[in-house]
Amino acid sequence: MGICRIGQRICGDTPSPWPNMGTRQPMEPITKETSTSISSIQKNIAKDGQYTGPSKWPEHLAQLKNHMNRLLFSVGSGGNHQNFLHIHSLIKKHGTKENSILYQNFNALRQAIPAIDGIDLDNEHLYSEPGQKTIVELSRMLHRLGYKVTFCPFEKPDFWVHCLHELHSEVPGLVTGFHTQHYDSSYPKPKVWIQAIQNKMGHDFDVEGFVLPGLRSRGGNDCSKGLCPDGSKNIKAKFKKWKEDDSNDNIQGGFI
Hints:
Layout: E1 3-7, E2 9-10, E3 20-22, E4 25-26, E5 29-32, E6 37-40, E7 44-47, E8 50-51, H1 57-65, E9 70-76, H2 83-94, H3 101-112, E10 118-122, H4 128-144, E11 148-151, H5 157-170, E12 175-178, H6 190-201, H7 235-244, E13 253-255
Parallel strand pairs: 1-9, 3-13, 9-10, 10-11, 11-12
Antiparallel strand pairs: 2-4, 5-6, 6-7, 7-8
Helix pairs in contact: 2-4, 4-5, 5-6
């Protein structure tokens, strides 16, 4: 049983010897300041405090949950979808209390699809102090709603580890993992993330299985640089190398 991530990524569980192995496919969701809604390219998911997503999602995702350990809803993406700039503007204008539009829409999602265990944050545009404050305030709000939080970064380990440290000092266990993206060879390697977390959080922090690296699979749009399951340079070989690397012996899973 593994992890499934929906929202920005719709994915299905895949059999694996690691307990936290999952797959995913792109479906870019956008949180727009202008419409104050949680939406995907296809349609709104929550608007004005009401769930407006596909009517079959609650039933289908409840069934999917029977075959995996955790179900995560991912917010954010790369490209031109500057989700966290919109989220930053919404927090600055409305805050994150119960009467704020962000709270109301995520609460609508929570009530409509209780199978979702946590929210995965894929901020790829807003860094420095405003970005850190946005991640921390959004995570605090999600905690009040009963969600756990994971991070899905591809760069800037110091930024993400500072967010982790601030949140962990307030609510230990709120952030349950880093889903680090390794779609390009220029991205920091898993051991860089592991070492950054250990250096900031100290030896008492349980980093075992906390960093779950992800690879891009070949197929679909803009996936020409992805890897195939089989072959000399494939997904399995990459994960095996990470697993066997003595400096990465804490890796216990990943995503595709």
